[in-house]
Amino acid sequence: MFLFFLAGCQNGEKGKLLSEIEQLKIRNSSLAEEISQSQQQNIQLEKQVQALRNFGTPANYNDIYNLQKIAVTKYTNIYDNDGDGRKETLLVYFQPFDEFGDVIKASGLVEVQLWDLNLPADKALLGQWKVEPAALKRLWFATILSVNYRLSFDVSAIAAKFDHPLTVKVKFTDYLSGKTFEEQRVINPQ
């Protein structure tokens, strides 16, 4: 009986060892795949480094583009988007320009403020919003006549009547150069 018990323990230990060996084989296969992927990435990075070396001089961000200014366009205003007679959406259209006066799609952080300069200074700021670069790149808007960024903000919670001029301020921080550009526009929501 003791021998039977001892033989049973050995079989249990053997099964446990076989299970551990299988797990180690699976882990080993997974690690081999990770090594293969890392080697492929390394080859791709080496190709990129070689391509950059072939340019000769170090790359300068001004060779890519040189942002000079932004402009808030005339279509920026507060609109009634759902047709209920109440203006609830601030649409801000702005364009980044390079040194040649061309509109370019630049990546960066946008900060927008809506001001009522007829109110006392402590109540003049009606709202402010930020648009991160990841969201901004999806807001590039093209028409037959122009291209620009089109930002949309809900202003329905702002307790102001939109029956007199307001000021929209846009601040754009270019992520390539680190430069900051500011522009403002008076709008007449009517």
Overview of the molecule:
The protein is of the alpha+beta class. The chain has 2 domains: 1-59; 65-187, Immunoglobulin-like, CATH 2.60.40.1940. 32% of the residues lie in helices and 33% in strands. It has 3 helices and 9 strands, in the order H-H-E-E-E-E-E-H-E-E-E-E. The strands form 2 sheets. Strands 1, 2, 3, 6 and 7 form a 5-stranded antiparallel sheet that branches. A 4-stranded antiparallel sheet has the order 5-4-8-9. A hairpin with a 5-residue loop joins strand 8 and strand 9. Residues 1-7 have low confidence and may be disordered.
Give a quick summary of the entry:
The protein has 190 residues and is α+β, with helices and mostly antiparallel strands. Helices cover 32% and strands 33% of the residues.
Could you list some keywords that capture this structure?
3 helices, five-stranded antiparallel β-sheet, 190 residues, four-stranded antiparallel β-sheet, 9 strands, elongated
Q: Topology of this structure?
A:
Blueprint: H1 2-53, H2 61-64, E1 67-72, E2 77-79, E3 89-98, E4 108-115, E5 125-131, H3 133-136, E6 140-142, E7 147-154, E8 166-174, E9 180-187
Antiparallel strand pairs: 1-3, 2-3, 3-7, 4-5, 4-8, 6-7, 8-9
Write the CATH architecture name of the largest domain. Answer: Sandwich
**Could you give the order of the helices and strands?**
HHEEEEEHEEEE
Helix content: 25-40%
The radius of gyration is 30 Å
Relative strand content:
25-35%
Number of domains: 2
